[in-house]
Design a protein that fits this description.
The protein has one domain: Nuclear Transport Factor 2, Chain: A (Roll), CATH 3.10.450.50. It contains four helices and six strands; from the N terminus they run ααββαββββα. Helix content is about 50%, strand content about 30%. Keywords: Signal. InterPro entries: NTF2-like_dom_sf (IPR032710), SnoaL-like (IPR037401). This is Nuclear transport factor 2 family protein.
Length: about 180
């Protein structure tokens, strides 16, 4: 009977300790999730308000932006050059997250996310990788993509084929 009690006490203690440890870890990542979510919201607001310096301060120095067009893949400096005229004319984009998922590496130094966005292009998907640099989350890679409902994929493919067939030929010939 004493062995059973001792086993029960030890099992209860181990369960409680492991549960506490898991809760502590989850609490840490909940705080980080809030930080990342706030950062991403601020990132979107800076673009909507055409705040050029603030918007680009969310990007790491070595980062990549991948846009909806197959030709849009830029490092931070290239993206700044492309975006500057839009910010100067106050003709930027206004994205609002309607659903967001955030994940973390075990060491908590990297995060990645995917989100559905309400945009002028209707529903888009933003996804990316963030790195904690000097205590702040910075965008290392951002990917913006348009969603296409399955019911209209054939129509969209037909519409874009004329343009993308030419681009595909260029890409295939430059691959050699």
């Amino acid at each position: 009977m004493k062995k059973t009690k001792l086993f029960f006490v030890l099992a209860t203690f181990l369960f409680a300790f492991s549960n506490f440890s898991a809760q502590s870890k989850n609490a840490k990542f909940e705080k980080e999730k809030t930080e990342v979510s706030t950062m991403l919201d601020d990132f979107n607001v800076a673009a909507a308000n055409a705040e050029f310096e603030k918007y680009f301060s969310f990007f790491a120095d070595e980062s990549t932006f991948i846009g909806t067009d197959a030709t849009e893949i830029w490092n931070k400096q290239e993206f700044k050059v492309w975006a500057k005229p839009h910010f100067d004319k106050k003709k930027t984009w206004n994205f609002t997250s309607v659903r967001r998922n955030i994940y973390f590496s075990k060491d908590g130094k990297l995060a990645w996310f995917d989100e559905l966005l309400d945009t002028q292009m209707k529903i888009c998907r933003g996804s990316g990788v963030l790195e904690k640099i000097n205590g702040q989350w910075k965008v290392k890679q951002y990917v913006l993509s348009m969603t296409i409902p399955n019911d209209v994929v054939d129509k969209v493919v037909l519409e874009k084929s004329v343009l993308e067939d030419v681009l595909l030929q260029e890409l295939k010939s430059s691959k050699k």
